[in-house]
Each structure stands twice: as structure tokens, then as C-alpha cells.
Design goal:
With 350 residues, the chain is α+β, with helices and mostly antiparallel strands. It is built from twelve helices and ten strands. It is elongated.
Length: 350
């Protein structure tokens, strides 16, 4: 291709030919009339797709722009314009106006939103009516409850559902959705446990059958220690502590979880009934090791609720039974419960 040095295309003047580019459209270095230099494909110059560095468009646009009205001192609702000001936004500078609301707060606004009426205050009117989205939803729910309307579909509720927020159809849908979410979370946790993945970060592997990796355990321990030094619950709440590390809400949740776990374990081994004497009071009943190896088992996995967790994790294996405290103590000390000895003696006498 012949040399195009010195030729003019719009406001561009070709300075030199550059290597590279597509066939028939080499790269050329040009200078605009405003002094800007740039490397452009010759095809863009030849076809007229590039006539300047952008200065012509800016100058032409300014010449056609309407004169901007001076908004300083104007009032829009509760806002008074103080001055024009620019502020950085996403790496660029955005020009707007600095306003003062009647509540005393100053804020940045776009002139177009003031002129269109979309911005009339700093947000104080919305906050004074509803401090948050939760307050708005609570207010809306109360209004619908007073009118005996469903909070989801706003239809009249049935007579049996007046005491709750939803009608029968929406209530059934909510229960079904909650059940699906719960089953989905359980399936996901089971998949992570089967793969040996941490349940907290879902990234790192775990060892020794634990549910969390060492990194998550260390971070959780540091968090608990920091909250303990601050006198706060491990959930982050500022409510007073009822135990060493738990508030009343977390303590009640732990008690409910432990009761559900205990009920599940005892149900798997015959329910709340002593296998020896027939005692049915739940507070008197324990899980006993049939082969008297409980001390070694507890040293290996721990005591208390950890035994219940181990039993559930291992699908309730054989070798365990339900005994009351008296039968369990006698079996541990003497190797045999007096009830069993009396029964054997009665059978011999018969």
C-alpha cells in the first residue's frame, strides 16, 4: 500500500505508516487538530468512521446544548440547592448539586431528579414514617391482619385461620416451601459429610469425621473467645447472658436441640422404658453399654450428648440398651442388677 504520510482525513493528519493491521487497512499514526496523537486503522480514516479524536463531537454537542438553568437557591420540596458540585462515582466525576434538607442534613442530588420531582428530601420523610423495610412490612402485616386479610394474597381468610397471618392456601404453600428448603439443606449437608467437606466453608476437607475443617474451627474459637471477653453471646446478640457464653434465646435453642436428639436416640432403643425394672420416668433413664465398656468408649469420643451424636451418626448400632439410674449403677458396680438376680432366683424356685 502506498505511503499516506501528510494526507488529511477530517481533523486527522497522517504522520507515519505503522506495521500491523488488517490487509488493506494498515495502522497509521495521526495527529488531530487539537494536538492529540493516536494510532488508528487506515480503513476507519478512509471510510470516514473516524474524523477526529472526539473533540469535534464535544464541541458540536456543546454548541447545541441548551443553556443550563441556575438552580442555586431554588427549593424542591424540603430541599434547598446550595451549590453545584462534582463528586467521584465509579472512577468518573459526576456533576450534581449540593442540597440542604429542612431536617438540617446536606446531601448530593442530580438536577434532573430534582426537576422531575423524584428527589424532594434527604430521605428523612421515609425514615420518619418507616425506619426500615422490616418496619414497613410489619406495619403492612398489621393492617392486613386487622382486616382479616391474608398477608400474601390479600384475600379474606377462613374462620380457622383468623389467628394467623395467612389463608389456608398460602399457609399450606408456605409450609410446603419451608419443608422443601429444610430437606434441600439436609441433603446438601449430607452430601458434604459424605464427601468429607467442611459444612462451614464448603471448601476444605475435614479429618477424623468432624463437620468443620481446622481453619473454620480456629476462627469460630477465636470469635467465641472475643465475644466472651466482651460479655456477649456467641450469636453476637447484646442480650444478657444466662450461662457462661449463651443468651436466653440461644440457651433455649440448645435445650430444644438436645431434647430432640435424646428423644431420637431413646426411640431407637425401645423408648423411655427401663429394660430391667420397667421405669418410665424420662429423667431417670440412661443409655447403657451392654458389654460394660462404657468407660473406654467415653474416653474415646467424650461423654454427655456426644454419645447421643455418635449413636445417631453410626445409625444406632447394637450393644446399647435403656436402663434407669439404679439398674445402671448396680450393673456397673456389681456386674448384675438385683432385679435380674431376683428374677433368676424366682425362676429357680419355680
Amino acid at each position: 500500500m502506498k505511503d499516506r504520510t501528510g494526507q488529511r482525513f477530517g481533523r486527522w493528519v497522517v504522520l507515519e505508516m505503522m506495521p500491523g493491521g488488517r490487509p488493506g487497512s494498515p495502522m497509521v499514526r495521526c495527529r488531530c487538530d487539537c494536538g492529540t496523537e493516536s494510532v488508528i486503522g487506515f480503513g476507519n480514516l478512509r471510510d470516514g468512521r473516524s474524523a477526529s479524536c472526539g473533540c469535534y463531537r464535544r464541541e458540536f454537542g456543546r454548541s447545541l446544548a441548551k443553556p443550563r438553568a441556575n438552580l442555586v437557591g431554588s427549593r424542591f420540596g424540603r430541599a434547598i440547592v446550595l451549590e453545584y458540585r462534582s463528586r467521584p462515582l465509579h472512577g468518573a466525576s459526576r456533576t450534581g448539586v449540593w442540597c440542604r434538607c429542612d431536617c438540617g442534613k446536606e446531601f448530593f442530588a442530580r438536577p434532573g431528579r430534582l426537576l422531575s420531582g423524584h428527589t424532594t428530601n434527604c430521605g428523612c420523610q421515609r425514615k420518619s414514617k418507616y425506619p426500615s423495610l422490616a418496619a414497613y412490612l410489619k406495619r403492612r402485616s398489621i393492617c392486613l391482619r386487622v382486616q382479616d386479610l391474608c398477608i400474601d394474597c390479600k384475600s379474606p381468610k377462613e374462620a380457622d385461620y383468623l389467628s394467623i397471618g395467612r389463608c389456608q392456601t398460602c399457609s399450606d404453600k408456605a409450609k410446603q416451601r419451608k419443608k422443601e428448603i429444610r430437606n434441600e439443606m439436609r441433603a446438601r449437608r449430607a452430601a458434604y459429610v459424605a464427601r468429607g467437606i467442611c459444612l462451614a466453608c464448603t471448601k476444605n476437607p475435614v479429618v477424623d469425621g468432624l463437620k468443620r475443617c481446622q481453619s473454620c474451627r480456629d476462627s469460630h474459637r477465636e470469635l467465641r473467645e472475643r465475644y466472651a471477653r466482651m460479655g456477649r453471646c456467641i450469636c453476637g446478640s447484646t442480650d444478657p447472658l444466662v450461662t457462661k457464653t449463651l443468651c436466653q434465646k440461644c440457651a433455649d435453642r440448645c435445650v430444644r436441640r438436645q431434647r430432640r436428639l435424646r428423644d431420637e436416640v431413646f426411640a431407637a432403643y425401645g423408648g423411655y422404658r427401663c429394660r430391667c425394672c420397667g421405669e418410665t420416668t424420662p429423667e431417670f433413664l440412661h443409655i447403657d453399654h451392654v458389654h460394660n465398656d462404657g468407660a473406654e468408649h467415653r474416653r474415646r469420643i467424650g461423654s454427655g450428648s456426644r454419645i447421643y451424636e455418635w449413636l445417631r451418626k453410626n445409625q444406632f448400632p447394637p450393644g446399647f440398651q435403656v436402663l434407669c439410674a439404679n439398674c445402671n449403677l448396680a450393673k456397673g458396680h456389681y456386674g448384675c442388677c438385683p432385679h435380674q438376680r431376683d428374677r433368676e432366683f424366682a425362676c429357680v424356685m419355680c
